[in-house]
Amino acid sequence: MQVDVARAKKVKSILVTLPKPENDKSPYFTLAEKYNLKLDFRGFIHVEGVAAKDVRKDKINFAEYTAIIFTSKNAVDHFFRVCEEMRHEVSADMKYFCISETIALYLQKYIQYRKRKIFFGKQSARDLEEVLKKHTNEKFLFPCSDVANEETQRWLQDNGYDFTPAVLFRTVISDITDLEDVFYDVIVFFSPSSVQSLYENFPDYTQKHTRIAAFGATTQQELLRHDLVLDIPAPTPEAPSMTMAVEQYIKQVNK
């Protein structure tokens, strides 16, 4: 990782723009302990469900679909929530395609896992390519938020899959104005919406000596749109995860 020497100051505190994990298994806790860092989590955005009556207005009939593509746990939660609100019983023959094994296993919260047809990839719809090729005749439902993963939708479209996006939840800016006088050496972003939240809450925000870490191309583009300096990008060949990228940076500046 190339470090901007002019900005290479020691890292003592990190703010991760996500809700605090429910358990202490997060790699961020390990990182904080290893380097004696002050670590805080704060969700810059949150999710609110779309009411079943509003989904009906989009004239999407869940019974018409033979397969579902899930790209997040939120999508799983809100699909089954809307089904319950609509009193729609999901067919036992429904096929589930998940972008990761973690999301596939999360389905156990709602269905009998071993008795259902469940397929999963490593981290993106593209990883499901080989499996999806064998199911080209399915009619797919794609539960998503109002800021849906455009990359996944574009890939499905380009490859000719019969799919329908269903907006079942919305991404909403959280109130974080209490952080106005709190400063961190590193702020970690994971979505364009989180960057937008920063400016919704603090229209006059200036970066100064704060280093910014960002995961994913769309998040990084949003930073550039606001003329922010990206100090710690991820994923990279050397650092496929955000924690690995942050650790590589800390190793260089905390000497």
Number of domains: 2
Q: What does the main sheet amount to? A: 6 strands, mixed
Overall average pLDDT: 91
User: Number of DSSP helices?
Assistant: 9
CATH architecture of the largest domain: 3-Layer(aba) Sandwich
Order of helix and strand elements from N to C terminus: EHEEHEHEHEHEHEEHEHEH
The total of beta strands comes to: 11
The level 1 CATH classification of the largest domain is Alpha Beta
Pick out the low-confidence regions.
none
Structural category is alpha/beta
CATH topology group of the largest domain: Rossmann fold
Q: How helical, in percent, are the residues?
A: 25-40%
Rg (CA only): 20 Å
Distance between the termini: 15 Å
Strand order of the largest sheet: 3-8-7-4-5-6
Shape: elongated
Q: What percent of residues are in strands?
A: 15-25%
